[in-house]
Recover the amino acids of this structure.
């Protein structure tokens, strides 16, 4: 059924009551919507079984008319999944299991007593917090791109339409000229969310001005940065927002065809996106002669095949064309000569998903959010050694401290905060001294890191910075496409030195050489991967030189590098329980029952199993 | 040094290494059954007329056979009128393709940054010991293949491991070994 613009309003009107209820209107009406998270994280924690149990219990109590279970996209609070919000009240339940559901349904909906046991605790002594809005993790976020988070079913286009969906597209198509759209985006100062932060409006304009009748737009969903999953989440929770952004871009640029290049590692996101495309096509929002205006645009999905370098624009294009994904020299830029030699505009998922909001609410509104040169909000994946791991959306310019302590809840187990890594393999490590650093494109670059796509990996005192640098270089050495010698051989040379240092065979002169080599790699490599790959080394060398020096003196302060540590059993604490000897995978521990055990250093592989299993803390590392 | 200079596709190449005649060791050739050959042409026919067909074609083939057998690659090269070296280059560049058969259960240990700082390297070495294979290898009974993956995007529940399509979060060494034992005893792939 092809829709007209009036039909969009009809659909919104039909669902208005539902949406108002979900926004908190109608408390006490006796109608509940249980918004159960079905992002990849919660699904792996068996949220589908929770759904089955909920359906079963609701049926058992005959509450089908009053309680509706709604599957939503990623809620963001992955650390405590599966999570569920009871709307309209906004009561948040976490860590649910199939077995908990009968009790929960009976208590909450029959006895009208929300269950404290499944509520979130901010610290171990604190009481359960009933409302989602009171939980620090959620309270300190600003949702713009993720405004539909936890409120709609991503597989239902009607619910997206009811939340102002496709209105921006209708407005752009019928009321705005393409120059006006581009000007609006330029005025908003929106910058590319994929990492480099290039002004989106400028990119659109140069693509529009490139000669040629056939133009393409691409959504880059090849989220290769390890430790980042914003794009996956956006697609899983609000796929239509991405499509709408692309449609608006297509009007502005004059494109007839678009591709979404999505990683092979994200099956659920791909599935949701193709459902969304089908639904939009059925409603006539994608295809020929949309809304009878003569405007046509089609979107298809291109699946990646697992190569980090495909995040680079020119190699992404090569990959879409079915070639070996080597980047090429620029100019000509993709906006001049992209897919099949035609002008192509590539933007990241988050950028596309931001566009409809700017068109809907105006550039001025967007411009007011954020810091001086970086406008709007940014989604980060806050992960690593932090209490509240998950996905957050915050205004640009927020300080690291607010992110890590107010939203993230600090470092678990009373450990000390050491550094935060942003920007993936192209980024750097920001030390604890810079905790008051405002997070935007400029400040992060000044600190030697980059914004990147938004991965934020928190590290505590148990993380070895040399090991982290080695980890990233290992990654880039493996993922380098091999075209430029500086990147291909430079990365393996860097890796060789880092391995030498972590083995305890490093020399003082290695540090100097690494720095020199890093600059050479930056200068001589062609694409972004090579130009930024030494960043983890340079930033750790800058902020954590002492740690490198300690490694040269054959000590690993964080006790991670296996060649530099030794496991011992403390005589004062060992009770001779034999547990470590049983669990040791290489049988390096000897000792009779109730006698002091001993580790044979020659056989020990330093896996740390003994330390993990010992109940008396009798195993020490030095 | 290559001896015969005139290229003739039917002639065998003769090599000399350090002055000595060198015979390329014979490889075990995968032979396709009739059914598989039919399936291959079926897959090729779906994509043959689309632009940029190679990667989707390899993806579908890889999904069907669980790897890319050499005869199939040759078939693809002939049908797409593309040099075999090109097909081979693409097939070996991307991590999603494999030129050797994989086990029934493919175990992917996430080695993304979040998983790394939470100790996924320990997980990997534990499974290497448990299964008696190194990363990238397959057990002799073709039951398990152990792989490292670059990031599954489940960083909120790190460390993560994936067995076929099932993702398991917050995995420690004990849980990973338990999972393997469960599969071995034929109970289930998920907990």
């Amino acid at each position: 059924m092809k829709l007209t613009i009036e039909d969009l309003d009809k659909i919104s009107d039909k669902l208005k009551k539902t949406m108002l209820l979900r926004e908190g209107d109608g408390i006490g009406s006796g109608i509940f919507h249980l918004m159960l998270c079905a992002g990849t994280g919660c699904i792996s924690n068996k949220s589908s079984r929770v759904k089955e149990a909920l359906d079963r219990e609701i049926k058992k109590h005959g509450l089908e008319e009053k309680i509706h279970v709604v599957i939503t996209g990623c809620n963001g609070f992955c650390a405590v999944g599966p999570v569920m919000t009871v709307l309209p009240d906004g009561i948040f339940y976490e860590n649910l299991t199939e077995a908990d559901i009968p009790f929960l349904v009976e208590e909450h909906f029959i006895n009208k007593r929300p269950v404290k046991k499944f509520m979130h605790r901010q610290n171990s002594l604190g009481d359960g917090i009933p409302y989602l809005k009171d939980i620090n993790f959620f309270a300190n976020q600003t949702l713009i791109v993720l405004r539909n988070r936890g409120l709609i079913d991503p597989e239902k286009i009607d619910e997206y339409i009811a939340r102002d969906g496709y209105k921006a597209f209708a407005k752009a198509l019928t009321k705005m000229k393409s120059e006006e759209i581009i000007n609006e985006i330029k005025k908003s100062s929106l910058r590319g969310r994929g990492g480099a932060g290039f002004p989106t409006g400028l990119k659109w304009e140069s693509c529009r001005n490139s000669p040629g009748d056939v133009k393409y737009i691409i959504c880059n969903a090849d989220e290769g940065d390890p430790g980042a999953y914003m794009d996956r989440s956006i697609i899983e929770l609000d796929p239509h927002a991405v499509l709408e952004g692309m449609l608006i871009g297509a009007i502005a640029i004059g494109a007839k065809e678009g591709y979404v290049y999505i990683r092979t590692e994200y099956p659920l996101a791909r599935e949701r996106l193709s459902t969304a495309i089908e639904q939009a096509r059925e409603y006539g929002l994608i295809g020929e002669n949309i809304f009878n205006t003569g405007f046509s645009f089609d979107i298809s999905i291109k699946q990646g095949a697992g190569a980090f370098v495909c995040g680079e624009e020119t190699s992404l294009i090569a990959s879409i064309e079915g070639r070996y994904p080597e980047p090429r020299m620029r100019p000509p830029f993709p906006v001049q000569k992209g897919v099949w030699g035609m002008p192509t505009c590539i933007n990241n998922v988050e950028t596309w998903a931001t566009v409809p909001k700017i068109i809907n609410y105006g550039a001025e509104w967007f411009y007011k959010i954020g810091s001086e040169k970086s406008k709007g909000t940014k989604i980060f994946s806050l992960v690593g050694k932090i209490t509240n791991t998950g996905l957050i959306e915050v205004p640009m310019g927020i300080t690291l401290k607010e992110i890590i302590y107010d939203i993230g809840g600090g470092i678990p187990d009373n450990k000390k905060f050491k550094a935060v890594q942003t920007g993936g393999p192209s980024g750097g490590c920001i030390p604890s001294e810079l905790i008051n650093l405002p997070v935007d494109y400029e400040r992060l670059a000044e600190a030697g890191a980059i914004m990147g796509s938004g991965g934020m990996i928190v590290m505590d005192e148990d993380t070895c910075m040399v090991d982290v640098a080695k980890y990233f270089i290992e990654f880039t050495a493996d993922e380098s496409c091999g075209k430029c010698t500086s990147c291909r051989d430079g990365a393996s040379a860097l890796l060789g030195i880092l391995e030498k240092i972590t083995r305890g065979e490093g020399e003082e002169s290695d540090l100097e050489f690494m720095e020199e080599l890093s600059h050479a790699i930056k200068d001589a490599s062609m694409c972004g991967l090579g130009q930024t790959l030494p960043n983890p080394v340079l930033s750790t060398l800058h902020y954590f030189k002492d740690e490198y020096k300690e490694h040269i003196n054959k000590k690993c302060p964080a006790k991670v590098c296996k060649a530099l540590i030794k496991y011992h059993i403390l005589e004062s604490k060992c009770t001779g329980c034999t547990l470590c000897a049983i669990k040791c995978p290489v049988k390096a521990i000897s000792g009779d029952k109730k006698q002091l055990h001993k580790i044979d250093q020659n056989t020990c592989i330093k896996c740390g199993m003994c330390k993990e299993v010992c109940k008396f803390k009798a195993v020490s590392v030095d | 040094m290559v001896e015969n200079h005139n290229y003739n596709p039917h002639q065998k190449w003769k090599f000399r290494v350090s002055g000595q005649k060198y015979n390329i060791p014979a490889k075990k050739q995968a032979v396709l059954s009739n059914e598989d050959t039919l399936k291959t042409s079926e897959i090729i026919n779906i994509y043959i007329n689309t632009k940029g067909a190679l990667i989707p074609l390899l993806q579908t083939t890889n999904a069907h056979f669980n790897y890319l057998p050499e005869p199939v690659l040759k078939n693809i090269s002939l049908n797409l009128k593309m040099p075999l070296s090109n097909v081979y280059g693409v097939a070996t560049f991307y991590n999603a393709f494999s030129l050797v058969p994989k086990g029934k259960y493919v175990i992917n240990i996430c080695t993304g940054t979040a998983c790394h700082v939470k100790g996924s390297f320990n997980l990997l070495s534990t499974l290497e010991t448990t299964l008696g294979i190194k990363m990238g290898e397959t057990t002799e009974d073709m039951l398990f293949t152990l792989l490292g993956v670059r990031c599954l995007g489940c960083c909120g529940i790190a460390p993560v491991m994936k067995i076929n399509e099932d993702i398991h979060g917050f995995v420690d060494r004990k849980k990973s070994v338990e999972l393997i034992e469960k599969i071995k005893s034929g109970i289930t792939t998920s907990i």
